[in-house]
Design goal:
Strand content: 15-25%
Oligomer: single chain
Helix content: 40-55%
């Protein structure tokens, strides 16, 4: 049984990923930071289905907490085979109003966390000479976003991180890919009004908003595929077509 760590796994895309991989027979560690109730509920219903799911509270932007979480995962499930870097935050704010604190927090949570988690599990994968790392970027990391410069910058950094690491780890048979979701029905986008959602739909060729399972299905494929690395897959209904 292969072991998967999913950061930010208690809601939205992360929850969908935990569910689809656990039901496929993977041993899954669901990481959460604040959503303990949701994490416990996911664990409960998946265990009732016979799935192997552990949960762990950690702020993945903090080195000590990441290290302790990965040690917990190894003790419970063995060495780590697959890492899904999904945890992230967003903020809408003009660049003129951005504070240094806003900028630093965005980089810590959305970018540095991937460095910390990947660094911590890499020895497992190098020892086996195989592994899979999947990073969640964003459409805004590909095309940029007004009033979200710090978010777009962090998500663009995820893409650079993914491509460079894929080149470096390819000879060790470790695949590294990224997904750049468009507008997805998650709590992160819950504050967007219905009128604005309708306007966005008009800009999307498929004229609809994506669902977390759309991303999870792609992750399921990337986990099982053996010949894809260094790719950034846009799942956005065609919104980002140049």
């Amino acid at each position: 049984m292969k072991t998967v760590v999913v950061t930010g796994g208690s809601r939205g895309i992360g929850k969908a990923v935990v569910e689809i991989l656990a039901r496929k027979g993977y041993a899954v560690l669901l990481n959460y930071h604040t959503s303990e109730k949701e994490a416990k509920e996911i664990q409960r219903h998946l265990r009732e289905e016979g799935c192997f799911v552990e949960i762990y509270k950690a702020d993945v932007s903090q080195k000590k907490e990441v290290k302790e979480m990965m040690e917990f995962a190894r003790n419970k499930m063995g060495s780590i085979d697959i890492l899904i870097n999904n945890a992230g935050i967003s903020q809408i704010k003009t660049f003129a109003d951005l504070t240094e604190e806003d900028w630093d927090k965005m980089m810590q949570v959305n970018l540095k966390s991937m460095y910390l988690t990947t660094k911590e599990i890499l020895s497992d994968m190098l020892q086996k000479q195989e592994g899979t790392i999947i990073n969640i970027s964003s459409i805004w990391g590909v095309i940029g976003a007004s009033c979200e410069v710090h978010y777009a910058t962090a998500k663009a950094g995820v893409i650079g991180f993914t491509k460079a690491l894929a080149k470096e780890l390819g000879p060790s048979h470790i695949r590294v890919n990224a997904i750049a979701p468009g507008m997805i029905q998650t709590d992160m986008n819950a504050n967007i009004g219905k009128e604005d959602i309708e306007k966005i739909k008009q800009e999307i060729p498929l004229e609809c908003i994506g669902k977390p399972k759309d991303i999870a299905k792609c992750i399921e494929w990337l986990v099982e595929d053996q010949y894809t690395t260094g790719q950034v897959i846009s799942i956005d209904g065609g919104w980002g077509i140049a």
